[in-house]
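Forum: Protein Structure Q&A
Topic: Joint prediction for protein chains with partners

I've read a bunch of threads here and the consensus seems to be that you should model interacting components together rather than docking separate models afterwards. I'd like to see that in practice. Below is the full input, 428 residues plus whatever partners are listed. Could one of the regulars post the assembled result?
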Amino acid sequence: MSKPMIQIALDQTQLEPALKVAENVANYVDVIEVGTILAFGAGIDAVRQLRKAHPNHILVCDLKTTDGGAILAKMAFEAGADWLTVSAAAHIATVAACKKIADEFQREIQIELYGHWTYEDAKAWRALGIKQAIYHRSRDAELAGVGWTDEDLNKMRKLSELGLELSITGGIVPEDIHLFAGISTKTFIAGRALASESGQEVAAAIREQIAKYW
Amino acid sequence: MSKPMIQIALDQTQLEPALKVAENVANYVDVIEVGTILAFGAGIDAVRQLRKAHPNHILVCDLKTTDGGAILAKMAFEAGADWLTVSAAAHIATVAACKKIADEFQREIQIELYGHWTYEDAKAWRALGIKQAIYHRSRDAELAGVGWTDEDLNKMRKLSELGLELSITGGIVPEDIHLFAGISTKTFIAGRALASESGQEVAAAIREQIAKYW
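Posted by a regular:
Agreed with the consensus. Here's the joint model:
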């Protein structure tokens, strides 16, 4: 099992502060994500500018694509995204449309596990050749005080067994990393923890925990 | 039951052509929608510019909000949207966060019915005071040749009975309008049919069908 990478989610509402945050932690993270809030705040230009500023990072465009898959995927990949997120609630035809464009660009699709998704859905995504999914506590669920549960961890293990590599997110802090040992983890995604002034220290602490458990 | 309104979905990838399309049909439609593709293509500025150009239309921001609800809702409503779409796959805490902001701005939330939503979900949305939902064939499902079915119509009737007014979309053409007679319909949403050069005629034909069946 390869070591999980560290991903910063940029969820600023405007591009300039997002570029500053990315610049501050770029040397400490492997993956930079244009979060949904930034993608809507600044539009596709956010993907273009971050690609330009960080040509060697993996760049994620977090659109949580739910429909119009082919067009959105083309826009995101042409602007320089490596990975595009697609909602688990999208029709399988939408997921397939995104995957087809991803293949043309030699990029990847990540399924965002929101809503009442099923393991049958997960098998259908795998059958399309999709290798990645994102597992998270909803940001709003997190704000409502819902923590990581055994149920979460069991679901992650089952998705791992189906061959999906997971990016894990939702208020990730260094002290949580040990919970996910043994799960096929592609990245740990953090937003606010890495965007703070102590972002570099937080990233280093996450990296240290990863080294301990993987 | 009030007469359904007509909504144009702007799904251009850039703002200028979208403004032109809106201008062409503004006098023929009641509701203008910044589609997800346009919202990502041009960012929140698309909402601002369309609000400015069409101060008297109902303006929808189709973000299919799935997380980060409070921030996205605030952005959309501050930019001038009247209605914001929220994915049926969003955590109920996200839906509640969006509804709270909508109430503060005296605007409305529309639930976009994607994924494995349930009638229990629909009751939970109603319990939050949400009055609108959007029912559609997925654009990609439509491209894959999946038509309107009895199952669709039965679901719509059941949602009507729960007190949800529906906006209906997915390749809407005048000849389909009669199918939805008796359903509590807020708007019929069309994109490409209204964006074409014959957009005004199509809108007039839809209006004529509405007059016949409502």
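Chain A has ten helices and eight strands.
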